Structures are given as structure tokens and as C-alpha cells.
Amino acid sequence: MLTHLDQNYEEKKADGELRSIGDYITVHAGAYRRKDKADIEVYAGNYHESQTFQGNITLFLYDKNDDEVFTEMYENITLAPGEKKKLDSTFTSQPMETYRYRYKTHPQM
């Protein structure tokens, strides 16, 4: 999972998307099939060299048909510079062979 965080950050960096502290926050949601449900693990990392992130992160998860599986807001998240951590472990009964996600950061000022 942490490798995926690193890859996501490198893609953002290559695309020139690093303007504010929220841009340095990367999220990865991994879905793992288990019997009749899918386990979902959510990780976040702060790739800024000196600034701590404090705020909320909203995750939107979609299935292969682009139907929303869930939206979750993780509140009062603190990530020190270079810190990576697990935000959540949850599950869904929807098939998750193919899925996509997006996220938004909401830094506290």
C-alpha cells in the first residue's frame, strides 16, 4: 500500500500539481476480495518536506460502473512531513474487481 502512495505522489509531482500543502497529501484505497465482500484499506501520506498537514480528507469510491460505493470524510487528520499512515479499514458487499477513487483534502488554516 505504501508503494502505491509513493507512485501516486510521483505522478502528481510529474504532472506539476504541487502548489499548496493539500497537494502534497496523497491517498490510496486498496480493495481486497474476501469471500462475498471486499475489504478496503485507506492510507494517506504527507510528502511535504517541512509542513504538517492538519485537516480533513474526503474519499469517494466508485465501482466498475462508476456508481458510488461510498464517500467518507476523515476528520481532524494530522500528518507530519514524510508521515504515512492507515486511515481506515472497512468493507463492502459490492463486487470490487474494478474500482476507482478520488479524494479531496481540506487543510485547516
CATH architecture: Sandwich
Q: What level of helicity do the residues show?
A: 10-25%
Write down the CATH class: Mainly Beta
What CATH calls the topology is Immunoglobulin-like
The dominant shape is: globular
Number of individual domains: 1
Number of helices: 1
How would you describe the overall organization of this protein?
The chain is mainly beta and 109 residues long. It has one domain: Sandwich (Immunoglobulin-like), CATH 2.60.40. Helix content is 12%, strand content 56%. The strands form two sheets. It has a three-stranded antiparallel β-sheet, with helices on one face. The protein has a three-stranded antiparallel β-sheet with strand order 4-3-6, with no helix packed on it. The chain starts with a helix and ends with a strand.
Descriptors:
single chain, 109 residues, mainly beta, Immunoglobulin-like, three-stranded antiparallel β-sheet, 12% helix, 56% strand, globular
Layout of helices and strands, plus pairs?
Elements: H1 2-14, E1 25-34, E2 37-46, E3 53-63, E4 68-79, E5 84-92, E6 99-107
Antiparallel strand pairs: 1-2, 2-5, 3-4, 3-6
